[in-house]
Recover the amino acids of this structure.
């Protein structure tokens, strides 16, 4: 299977600018770039597919450059719905430094900043040297711009397309970059770059886009969707990532294995068969979690995530370290308890149950556990002195639902 065929099989190619690109990808030796703006201080799992495809291309003999847009980040890539909130220069610079460190650590790619060349261009030169190549009709024809016309788009965001095209031209001239890779929502911007290079230099360059990674409902993984899973483990712990991945939809897990792992086709087809016949075992899901977490944070972090999950499943809460309980409790409903309190009132006050009658029923039916131990005493007092590490009381209702009581 050629590189192009493998990328198609993995669902990593949506649109290409030229049929010639297939042969060039298979041949190797292209210097290409992929970009992201520093809108946050960490990349998220929506970015990961893009950078993993860069690694695939690098392993096949191509040369990647990562552009973190310290300049374009000050402008903001147009969204389909509304104007972006403009970030301060200080925030963009801080985010740039964080993303640069993260990218270099995870992928080992060379990182460049487009602010380095924007700073040397004044507004008159920008309009004369680059703006003259773009007609208003051409820019209005781009999908993202058309979608914003009714609600309105500022000239600032309208100009973003020219800046991204300028990036491609600059890297082509100075670094021999002949290809750009991006998510499918960037098609209008990257084709603008291909067109600008052709008009300004006469050279032919290439680009292709990847489908955006979504769930089965078409909701993409990203910060703007409110469901970001950060690559920085201090923002999204390995346990949180593990829980998300082992619970992805059965219908999507094989697609994610193709996109997010370097497993071979034969290996993935084996997991596809297992998932089809025994989806309840979550074998494919666990492999997905293992591959992603190990790549991002190392095998020890993966084992820690599994340990937390097993402890919660079996109710062995006391086996967990303070750090593990802190990670495990991040997604639990929480309640802060200041003074010692009887369990019935605590369950009601923390909204674990809706009434004292319901609280008594759960307790009497052995459906309430405190720090891994069943409690059926209606007079039981929850005390800070009995809390795990003097900080947390973990309440389990039924078989799966956990709550954390935080003691002041």
């Amino acid at each position: 299977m050629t590189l192009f065929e493998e990328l198609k099989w993995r669902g990593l190619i949506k649109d290409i600018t030229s049929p010639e690109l297939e042969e060039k990808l298979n041949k190797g030796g292209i210097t290409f770039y992929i970009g992201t703006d520093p809108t946050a201080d960490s990349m998220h799992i929506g970015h990961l597919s893009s950078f993993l495809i860069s690694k695939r291309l690098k392993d096949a003999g191509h040369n990647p450059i990562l552009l973190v847009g310290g300049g374009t980040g000050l402008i903001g890539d147009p969204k389909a719905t509304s104007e972006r909130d403009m970030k301060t220069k200080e925030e963009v610079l801080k985010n740039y430094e964080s993303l640069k460190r993260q990218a270099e650590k995870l992928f080992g790619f060379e990182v460049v900043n487009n602010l380095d060349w924007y700073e040397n261009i004044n507004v008159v030169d920008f309009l004369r040297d680059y703006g003259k190549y773009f007609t208003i009709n051409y820019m209005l024809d781009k999908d993202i711009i058309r979608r914003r016309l009714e609600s309105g788009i500022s000239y600032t965001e309208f100009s973003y397309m020219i800046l991204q095209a300028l990036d491609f031209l600059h890297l082509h001239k100075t670094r021999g970059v002949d290809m750009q890779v991006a998510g499918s929502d960037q098609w209008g911007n990257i084709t603008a770059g291909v067109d600008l290079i052709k008009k300004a230099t006469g050279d032919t360059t290439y680009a292709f886009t990847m489908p955006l990674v979504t769930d089965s409902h078409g909701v993409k993984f990203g910060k703007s969707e409110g469901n970001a899973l950060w690559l920085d483990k201090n923002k999204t712990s390995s346990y949180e990532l593990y829980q998300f991945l082992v619970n992805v939809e059965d219908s999507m897990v094989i697609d994610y294995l193709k996109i997010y792992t370097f497993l071979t086709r034969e290996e993935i087809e084996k997991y596809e068969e297992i998932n089809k016949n025994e989806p309840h075992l979550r074998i494919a899901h666990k492999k997905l979690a293992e591959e992603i977490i190990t790549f991002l944070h190392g095998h020890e972090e993966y084992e820690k995530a599994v340990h937390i999950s097993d402890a919660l499943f079996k109710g062995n809460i006391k086996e967990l370290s303070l750090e593990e309980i802190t990670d495990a409790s991040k997604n639990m409903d929480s309640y802060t308890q200041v003074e010692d309190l009887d369990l019935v009132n605590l369950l009601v006050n923390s909204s674990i149950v809706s009434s004292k009658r319901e609280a008594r029923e759960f307790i009497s039916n052995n459906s309430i556990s405190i720090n891994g131990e069943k409690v059926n005493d209606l007079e039981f007092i929850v005390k800070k002195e009995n809390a795990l590490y003097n900080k947390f009381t973990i309440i389990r209702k039924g078989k799966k639902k956990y709550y954390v009581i935080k003691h002041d």
The chain has a mean pLDDT of 92. The first helix runs from residue 3 to 9. The chain has three domains: 3-214, 238-314, 330-407.
